[in-house]
Amino acid sequence: MATFSYIARSRTGEEVTGVLAGTSLDDVVRKLQDLGLAVLYVTEKKTGEGFDVWKEKWHQLNVKKTSTKDLSLFSRQLSTVLESGIPLSKGLRGLSADSSNKALGKTIADICIRLEQGESLSDAMSAHPASFGKMYLSMVRAGERAGTLDQIVEHLAVYLEKTDAIKTKVKSALSYPIFIMGFAILAFLLLLLKIVPTFAVLYGDLGQDLPALTKIMIDTSNLIRANFLIFLATVAAFGVAAFLFLRTDRGRYAKDNFLIRMPLFGVIIRKSVMSRFTRTFGILLKSGLPILEGLDLVGHASGNAVITKAVDEIKIQMESGQGLTESFRATKKFPEMVLQLMATGEESGGLDSMLQKTSDFYDREVEASVHGISSLIEPVMIVMVGVLLGVMVLGMFLPIFSLGEAVMSGGHGM
């Protein structure tokens, strides 16, 4: 039996692409027509076919990852379909047609086709890693095994909605200072490269001694302007080096460790990481996954390399016979409150619900921290930018003030 790639159009007019096994091209066309698809193009996929292999790899690199917001909406809709009792494939066709995200709509349409070919929902979803991560698939598989898929998908919808809300709050807290700092840097460069040279020519014609601050600014401006291409190349090289370093395990760890320790904003990031970690771990345990299997997934789902490394250490300690809470405490990466609540949940047999309560607590903490820092950061940033630009303006006008004083002193002398 050979494998064929196809392009077809659904009854709703949506273009659908995919792969289908069949004995011949006519057999595949017939199967697609039986699924209600209008066949546009079918070709056999030959093993080792160079161009197709590279084309597929290129496609995978350029597939846009489904956003948390879109995935949470899809999960909520899928939960409704499962609870309603209508056939899953029929419900998914409706979701595909109504999806405002075209890429996700095509993904859902392909899942529907795979379901009608006899695949399970989790297997059909696993063909689209850009939309459904390991954690999502593991929970769907757990729901399929336990016969509680509708409840699991409902839990996923709630989890994704809360995760998206926290991410939005953290981004809103960080976006303003990033914008202001970017504006300050551009203003600084504009003054240094355009305004300072004009004053340098003026003061050169006067031939008087300049204050130290003015000399430093003029020398800096001359240095950058004389070596502008080297300056740009240095900045670009530094940017590329930083980008490549941050893609390594060591770089990701250094970046995430800095983020959770940085002044002012570190507290928000730490709390948001704890919120995401406890919520993810709690929902995995609630879905019926064993603790060690849940730890395999939650480390990477936390979105922080420091926590990922800590979870790897926890798994090693638990496999050697240590208890859960003791293993977490040994890493020294988790707040005491999390450890105490975890110990309580472990003793009472309600670890999953205790983790969810911990996550809800950190959600409130993040919201309070964002509100507090937002009210504080605006005046702080205004003062910082004002001081930076004020020092530059002062450095440029100090010689004029000195000249004015000299003129006035000369006038009194007469």
Can you offer a commentary on this structure?
This protein is mainly alpha-helical. The protein folds into three domains: 2-62, Ubiquitin-like (UB roll) (Roll), CATH 3.10.20; 68-160, Type II secretion system (T2SS), domain F (Receptor-associated Protein); 162-414, Receptor-associated Protein (Up-down Bundle), CATH 1.20.81. Helix content is 78%, strand content 6%. It contains 17 helices and three strands. It has helices spanning 25-34, 50-62, 68-84, 88-98, 102-116, 121-126, 134-146, 149-206, 212-226, 228-246, 249-261, 266-286, 291-301, 305-319, 324-331, 336-348, 351-413, and strands at residues 2-9, 15-22, 38-44. A three-stranded antiparallel sheet has the order 2-1-3. Helix 3 (68-84) runs antiparallel to helix 8 (149-206) and helix 12 (266-286) runs antiparallel to helix 13. The longest helix is centred in the C-terminal third of the chain and has 63 residues, at 351-413. The N and C termini lie far apart (109 Å).
Topology:
Elements: E1 2-9, E2 15-22, H1 25-34, E3 38-44, H2 50-62, H3 68-84, H4 88-98, H5 102-116, H6 121-126, H7 134-146, H8 149-206, H9 212-226, H10 228-246, H11 249-261, H12 266-286, H13 291-301, H14 305-319, H15 324-331, H16 336-348, H17 351-413
Antiparallel strand pairs: 1-2, 1-3
Helix pairs in contact: 3-4, 3-8, 4-5, 7-8, 8-9, 8-12, 8-17, 9-17, 10-11, 11-12, 12-13, 12-17, 13-14, 14-15, 15-16, 16-17
